[in-house]
Design goal:
single chain; about 100 residues
Length: about 100
């Protein structure tokens, strides 16, 4: 989602091979949340979408689905925390945050 302005991450490592199961959650500066084609969703919807994804996976790998939270540089931490709490409530544990390297 190109509308999310990411913070600089000068010491971040570049992404490597992408996991096809990965789910990216975008949090905009006004607090709106987007997952894939689902736009302007609520934190409870995040939980429902993730639980649905878990239910479609083989049990052995269901809770290792990688989650990336992309928070807009100007988003209040409150909005990011709501998404973090929604993800946490599902039992998923592979959570990462992305930022843009300086100069990009």
């Amino acid at each position: 989602d190109e509308r999310v302005a990411l913070a600089d991450a000068p010491h971040g490592r570049p992404a490597t091979k992408k996991d096809p199961r990965a789910i990216v959650i975008n949090v905009h500066d006004d607090g709106t949340i987007k997952i894939g084609m689902n736009d302007n969703i609520k934190p409870a919807d995040v939980t429902a979408i993730l639980k649905s994804a878990i239910s479609k996976m083989p049990k052995a790998e269901a809770f290792s689905i990688p989650i990336t939270i992309r928070g807009d540089y100007n988003a209040q931490h409150f909005y990011i925390k709501q998404v973090m709490d929604a993800v946490k409530s599902t039992g998923l544990y592979k959570i990462s945050f992305t930022g843009m390297q300086q100069g990009q």
